[in-house]
Design a protein that fits this description.
single chain, 556 residues, alpha+beta, eight-stranded mixed sheet, globular, oxidoreductase
Length: 556
């Protein structure tokens, strides 16, 4: 056992929520030990890998694009999306309302004064399609960070490193927390193992060989260790019946070390976990042709034009179009009995509508290259997408429907040991031809075609996100493309129940003395401020908001 070290506050987890909490503690002059089981290369956690999207309301960027937004409209959308319906939603709902006001108020200015900037075109994620009070964003609110994930973590990392230089922060990398120490009902610190050093790149599997034990003590502990998305066994165990049976095969949107360790340790110390069955997994996952971690998947951020078919070749029902309702689509597809589905599109659509989630998949935005970003609107297929076309096992190109379907069948058969449904080229051609006939007029009974035209009424979509309506089978826009899609694990929407000061609450509803939680470990605030669904851009924002609250409260 190493000698016990002491600080004012211990923060466990060096992702965005942990960095934000630590930055606030430094601002208050508190000493901090920042505990992280991975190596220094992993500073910034999952936020570093992200696209950098932030949910903000009534911003200058929206107004320049003629988007009329308001806190009232945003709260209407949040309530319709979250679907709060449980007694334990008291604190999540309060967190949600406070967060919407934050997103409509000081969030942009607070980040801006730290040097944060956003891309001028606001994205329109989770478009819903069920009515004014149903789930989804009524207007575009997805503000992309200039610099993507690294751009959002950099200001907070700089503050933390300044704290190190000032002697206020001790960075304890390769320290794996195994339990919270409790004395007379008060959380007093953390205990765990010092793991052997690593030179692994960010996200790669690291050694779990312990070299020594450690114990740190403090007046408060802030847990910001993330969710469970890297452990598929935990995901399946928490999978709710309302979403059908969990997939036998899933891709991982986060590294293996995202395993819920902090949530488990906090529960053992007396914290209450609520809404563990609420989760957020994407249905547009593709296998990374150049993986960093095991089973590494990437999410397609699709425009609205691709034809979406289930594994048997049936078109998905209204309004389950690309980019409209992630969880509704997940629920529908889990009822098909297959773990995959298909996009069918052409080169004209993939050129304009396919973006890939992640900082490494968007070198133009990550590298802050104005020239390269402008090239998205005028060039061919984006470079990262072209690499998936060239090397990705889930991508198929063909000159005819018959060739395309034959290759789709072969891919499905090989990956399911012959258990996949056999697609009919005749039926898929008939579906494509029927859809294409609806393009001939500026109006249509096909809801997806209507949605495409509606999307293009928004300037941002017309410029860089939605292809002009055209027949998919038009040879001049070929070749035809099929993309096999899988479920991609990502976020835990439930977590440790917290009050508005990020204090973890116990089974009796009272705060556990000395224990705070933020980020995904706290369901991004309160134990589940998103409810059942997310409006997108709210995960990073939730880490910022709850991390800031936890840091300020722990400092007090």
């Amino acid at each position: 056992m190493q000698p016990t070290e002491e600080a004012d506050v211990i923060v466990v987890g060096a992702g965005l929520a942990g960095l934000t909490a630590t930055a606030e503690l430094i601002e208050a002059g508190r000493s901090v030990i920042l505990v992280e089981q991975e190596g220094e290369a992993s500073l910034g956690g999952q936020a570093w890998w992200s696209f950098g999207g932030l949910f903000m309301v009534n911003t200058p960027e929206q107004r320049r694009l003629r988007v009329r937004d308001s806190v009232e409209l945003a709260w209407q959308d949040w309530l319709g999306t979250a679907g709060f319906d449980r007694p334990e939603d008291y604190w999540p709902r309060r967190w949600a309302e406070s967060y919407v006001h934050f997103a409509a108020g000081e969030k942009r200015a607070w980040l801006h004064q730290m040097g944060h900037r956003v891309f001028p075109v606001v994205g329109w994620a989770e478009r819903g399609g069920y009515g004014a009070t149903g789930p989804g964003n009524s207007v575009p609110r997805f503000h992309i960070t200039w610099g993507t994930g690294p751009g959002i973590t950099a200001p907070f990392e700089a503050k933390v490193r300044d704290g190190v230089a000032r002697g206020l922060v001790r960075l304890a990398f390769r320290h794996r927390m195994e339990e919270l120490t409790v004395s007379n009902g008060v959380v007093t610190g953390v205990r765990g193992s010092v793991l052997e050093p690593t030179t692994a790149v960010r996200g790669a599997v690291t050694s779990r060989v312990p070299l020594a034990e450690f114990e740190f003590t403090a007046g408060a502990v802030v847990v910001t260790t993330g969710g469970i998305g890297g452990d598929h066994a935990l995901v399946r165990a928490a999978w709710p019946k309302r979403l059908g049976t969990p997939p036998e095969t899933m891709l991982s949107g986060v590294p293996e070390h995202v395993d819920g360790r902090g949530i488990t340790a906090s529960a053992a110390a007396g914290g209450r976990v609520i809404n563990p069955d609420r989760m957020w997994h994407y249905v547009e996952g593709i296998r990374n042709w150049n993986p960093v971690w095991a089973n590494h998947g990437i999410r397609i951020l699709p425009g609205p034009s691709s034809l979406w078919l289930d594994a048997a070749g049936n078109r998905l029902p209204v309004p389950l179009f690309p980019g409209f309702d992630t969880l509704g689509t997940l629920e529908h597809l889990r009822g098909t009995g297959q773990d995959y589905s298909w996009f069918i599109l052409n080169k004209a659509i993939i050129r304009k509508e396919f973006a890939l989630s992640g900082s490494e998949q968007n070198p133009d935005l990550t590298g802050k290259s104005v020239r390269d970003v402008l090239g998205r609107a005028t060039a061919g297929v984006p470079g990262p997408v072209q690499k998936f076309l060239d090397h990705g096992e889930d991508f198929i190109t063909a000159g005819s429907v018959e060739e395309l379907v034959a290759r789709m069948n072969a891919l499905a058969k090989d990956s399911t040991n012959g258990a996949a449904p056999v697609l009919s080229a005749e039926a898929i051609r008939a579906e494509l031809e029927a859809r294409d006939r609806e393009i001939a007029n500026p109006f249509s009974k096909d809801s997806q075609v209507t949605a495409i035209r509606g999307a293009r009424s928004y300037l941002g979509d017309r410029l860089i996100r939605t292809a002009s309506p055209h027949p998919i089978l038009d040879p001049q826009d070929g070749p035809l493309i099929a993309v096999r899609l899988s479920v991609l694990t990502r976020k835990t929407l439930g977590g440790l129940e917290t009050d508005m000061d990020s204090r973890v609450l116990g089974l009796d509803g009272n705060p556990v003395p000395g224990l705070f939680a933020a980020g995904e470990a706290a369901g991004f605030g309160g134990g589940g401020m998103h409810g059942y669904r997310s409006l997108e851009g709210t995960f990073l924002g939730g880490c910022l908001f709850s991390g800031r609250a936890a840091g300020r409260a722990a400092a007090r």
